[in-house]
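Residues determine shape. Next comes a sample protein:
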Amino acid sequence: MISRAQGQLVGRVSALLRTISSYEPDGASTSDLARATDLARPTVHRLLSSLADEGLVDRDPKSGRWALGPELYLLGSVAATRYDITDLAGEVLRDLARETGESAFLSARRGDETVCLASEEGSFPLRSHVLHIGIRFPLGVASAGLAILAHMSDHDIDEYLSRVDLTAEWGADHSRAAIEERIAATRLAGFSVNPALIVEGSWGMGAAVFDHRGAPTWALSITGVESRFRAERLPDVGALLLSRAHRLTQLLRHRAR
């Protein structure tokens, strides 16, 4: 068994790598990373220097900003043969963007978060810029994370909401009671709706995609400006999202055989 100190070290390194990924492609300063991870700046610099020695992070000599390193690319390329579903999702995303006119996204659950893996721009000229590849949100925040959370078991939802407090960073709209209300609405409709809870005027909708065990492991979502998400349009767009999410789920199950 690893010691508590070793476990904390692994947790700090993991937090740093995840945080750096959210700053791609521009990279992050040491101070940025210290603030985001709530670690002392000297500690962050020491960890980053060790990670750089292993090729896991890279530092721009001019700007001093940190980015993910070449060794992570190599490791990711190997892992992609098992975990990457963007090849199957590409056509589904293109269809979704074409049929709705909105930008379409594929996100994956990673522990208590979702991370955006792929995107396809829609034809409508006004777009929301909340989502981009690599961005992470806690479960229950943004339409993808809400869609996944709503399809988890009641026990897992209760366990998650009992140990996290999203209000500190995301406000009162992300209290436990508010999230539970949106979970109930998502379960009733089958799809989730984010009515501009992250950025004013930016709406999103999401639908869960399930793995071969029936677990909500990914989500398809669309984002756009508020005027594109009128109440009368939501059922049709939601039905389309559910149809495409079911299609991707079936493709994944077929590949898993």
In short: The mean pLDDT is 90. The chain has two domains: 4-75, 84-256. Strands lie at 57-59, 66-68, 103-110, 113-120, 136-138, 192-195, 202-210, 216-225. The first helix runs from residue 4 to 22.
